[in-house]
Write a structure and sequence with these properties.
The chain is an alpha+beta fold. Helix content is 15%, strand content 24%. Strands 1, 2, 3, 4, 5, 6, 7, 8 and 9 form a nine-stranded antiparallel beta sheet that branches. The radius of gyration is 16 Å and the shape is globular. The N terminus is likely disordered.
C-alpha cells in the first residue's frame, strides 16, 4: 500500500485463508450452501452473481415493512442482545442483472475471523485481498478479482477494476446511535460492494 494506490502484487489469495482455517466457521449463522438451482456459468452465487443465480441459492427473508422486496434474504435469526429479528443478507442491490452490493449481518458475538470467512465465501475464488485497515468506527478490507473485472467490465455496468470493498462494524454506540463502533470480538455487520475504499477512511 502506497498512499491510496492499492497494488495487486500486495494482495494475498482469499481462497488460501479458507484453506488455512481448515474447520468450518462456528458462527451462529453462516452462508447457506446452495440447495436449489445451480449457479450461472460463472459459478458465482454471492457478490457479482446474476440475479437468477443469487435468488436460486438464497431464500427471501422478511423484516416486515422496513425492506423493499428482493433486498432481504435469509438465513434469518433472532438477535441474542435484544431479541429482534434480523436476516443475514440485507440491503441487497441488484443492477443490470447482477448483485452489486449487500450487507452481511451477524450475531453480536461473532468474532472478526468468522465474519472474514463468511465475506470470502461471497467472492470469486480468484479474489485476493489487501491489509485490514482498522479505524475508530470500523475496519476496511479491500479485494481484487479478475473474474469480477471480466464479468462487470462490459456495458452496461462497465466496472473494469474488479475491486470489492468490505466495511466491518459492531453496530451503533450506546451513547450515540448515529456513530458506529468496532470490536473484533463482536462484529455485527460487513457491508460489501463493488466499490473499494482504497484509503480506508470512509468510516
Amino acid at each position: 500500500m502506497t498512499g491510496t494506490m492499492l497494488r495487486a502484487t500486495s494482495f494475498l489469495s482469499a481462497a488460501a485463508i479458507l484453506a488455512a482455517c481448515g474447520a468450518t466457521p462456528t458462527a451462529t449463522i453462516s452462508t447457506p450452501a446452495p440447495t436449489t438451482a445451480p449457479a450461472a456459468a460463472d459459478n458465482l452465487t454471492g457478490l457479482g452473481a446474476t440475479d437468477t443465480a443469487f435468488n436460486a441459492n438464497h431464500t427471501y427473508g422478511s423484516l416486515g415493512t422496513i425492506a423493499t422486496p428482493g433486498t432481504v434474504y435469509g438465513p434469518c435469526f433472532t438477535r441474542k442482545d435484544d431479541g429482534s429479528k434480523d436476516c443475514m443478507f440485507k440491503a441487497v442491490r441488484h443492477g443490470d442483472g447482477r448483485v452489486l452490493a449487500f450487507s452481511l449481518d451477524f450475531q453480536s458475538d461473532t468474532p472478526l475471523a468468522v465474519a472474514e470467512s463468511d465475506v470470502i465465501r461471497q467472492l470469486p475464488r480468484d479474489a485476493t485481498y489487501g491489509p485490514l485497515m482498522v479505524q475508530t468506527h470500523c475496519a476496511v478490507w479491500n479485494f481484487m478479482s479478475p473474474t469480477l473485472a471480466s464479468l462487470l467490465g462490459t456495458p452496461p455496468i462497465g466496472d473494469k477494476t474488479g475491486m470489492v470493498g468490505v466495511e466491518f462494524d459492531s453496530g451503533p454506540a450506546a451513547s450515540d446511535p448515529t456513530v458506529n463502533t468496532y470490536n473484533t470480538n463482536s462484529v455485527t455487520r460487513a457491508i460489501m460492494s463493488t466499490t473499494a475504499d482504497l484509503s480506508g477512511t470512509a468510516c
